[in-house]
Structure of Paraquat-inducible protein A:
Amino acid sequence: MTGCEQPRSTSIRVDSSVPYRLQPPSLVPSAPLVDQAPPEARSSRRRLRACHECDWLVALPPLSPGQRANCPRCGHTLATRHRQPAQRSMALAMAAMVALLLAISFPFVSFSTSGVGNRIELTHTATTLIGFDQPLVAIAVIMTIAVLPGLYLLGVMWLQLGLLQDQPLPASRHIARSLAHLNPWMMADVFIVGALVSLIKVSDLAQIELGLSFWAYCVFALLLLFTTQSIDSDWMWFSLAGEPLAPEGTRTGTTAAPQGLAGCPTCGLVNRLEASGRGHCLRCGERLHARLPHSLQRTWALLAAAALMYIPANVYPIMTTTSLGHSDPSTIIGGVVELIQMGSWPVAVVIFMASVIVPVGKLVALAWLCLVVKRSNELNAAHRTWLYRLTEFIGRWSMVDVFVVAILVALIRAGTLMSITPGPAALAFAAVVVLTMLAAMTFDPRLIWDTPLPRDRHATQGTTG
Ligand SMILES: [Zn+2]
Ligand SMILES: [Zn+2]
């Protein structure tokens, strides 16, 4: 925590040689591209933010609806301003909730072959797995496709209801804090892709009929995406708990950690840390660290566990198809080869990308980032941060194959004529997805931007206790 990094600017105002990138400026042609307030107004402790990805301290300029403020150093979005954020989020969350309720109330999809058939509801994709001794996979499926999104939508409605009445409802701050943590674990969009892949896979073997729930779930997935994008967390936290001033003497245009400060990852407020490099956010109560504790060690451990689980995920069958008494187990790669033989090239590519390229690419990319992070500098940091963002973004799409298993196991139940059972690889592969997602979360991208001096490295590790 020593000031071994030379501050670029000693004044409190933002380094004007690095203008804010506000997008899209065309929406509000007269909007200022930089904070055009008079200098005395700028030298305040109001609306300071430390970038979560590079730790750069800036003062947020006034934003008009449709604009967003990006970090001048790494390009990370610091705040996005929406038009009528409360009304918008409320309307979208309510519509998404209705679509989710419809999706769990009606038949999802049915199949029939030679006069024998089966019809399933959305929740059967999880409950059938429990019958095959796969409770963990079942929990992962039902949580990511229905329970967590449902809780998220209820949370959004509760929050916005309070904000619309100018009187936040009880527990609003806890809920607002939880919403940010739920976000990556909601996988309605991935489930839709999984459903399409499963249906194409069996379309040659049986007649498939899509139920009302299927379409309702598609609408729900879309509305859920819009709801998460409609949240203006900067405005929401200001409305919930005001904006306490940043600590006295905070300098912008340099990094926060050498000043003993940290930006809150949830609400954005800049807080002073204790000498140990830890603290709690004054506004939302979130735990703060100068750098995530043991970030590299934890990421390595999770990567090692994921790499280990990737072996059984590929060696064991992910599902077994039984047709007229003949059992045919298939591994992940075997499934891809089968699809190519069937001539379903696009589906084979989707499964190959989701089950091989994404998890392996993510393991390699994160391991490489952990290796080179101490040799990063301003020249290569932007590319490395971009790679980190990519691994964080694509990680959840690996769940496609797990959802395919869940849907096919529930749907294809026609006794000895044809049935599909889950294999041990399903659990191993679900574990790979969860472990790599956790690995991306424990990796602290701010380390990429830290000055690679021995003293600094020592300080960083010192704070991890
Ligand atoms: Zn940044
Ligand atoms: Zn906070």
